[in-house]
Amino acid sequence: MKLDDAAARLEALGNPTRLKIYRALVRAGAEGMPVGRLQTKLDVAASTLSHHIKSLVIVGLVTQVREGATLVCHANYELMHELLGYMAEECCADGVCPPKVATRVA
Questions:
Q1: Where are the membrane-spanning stretches (predicted)?
Q2: Is the residue at 93 inside a domain?
Q3: In total, how many domains does the chain have?
């Protein structure tokens, strides 16, 4: 993955509404979620939802498929894993790892 592509995808996910949309689609699984159901679930105005979904589609994190009169959105799991892998692959690459964080017990 190229740096510019990763930056664009992370920027798209940096908006709270888009992150909510993406998380809902990731949880929806392979069947995806119709736009109407997504709108109801997140209680977002249709125009706002459309704007944010478009941003996620542009960077490839979301795909849309028309099934009859219904527009269904799907998370692009392959790209999600690629982005997460891109972020994690540099961990300890130079032999310097972050210190372990102590777990607090309440």
A1: none
A2: no
A3: 1
Evaluate whether residue 98 is within a structural domain. no
Amino acid present at 86:
Y
The dihedral over CA atoms of 82, 46, 29, 31, expressed in degrees to the nearest 10, equals -120
Quick check: 99 pLDDT over 90?
no
Which residue segment(s) compose the domain that 39 sits in? 3-88
Please report whether residue 105 resides in a domain.
no
For residue 101, what are the β-bridge partners?
A: none
The pLDDT of residue 10 is above 80: yes
Q: What is the 3-state secondary structure (H, E, C) of the chain?
A: CCHHHHHHHHHHHCCHHHHHHHHHHHHHCCCCEEHHHHHHHHCCCHHHHHHHHHHHHHCCCEEEEEECCEEEEEECHHHHHHHHHHHHCCCCCCCCCCCCCCCCCC
Q: Give me the mean pLDDT over the 38-65 stretch.
A: 96
Structural domain includes residue 61: yes
pTM more than 0.90: no
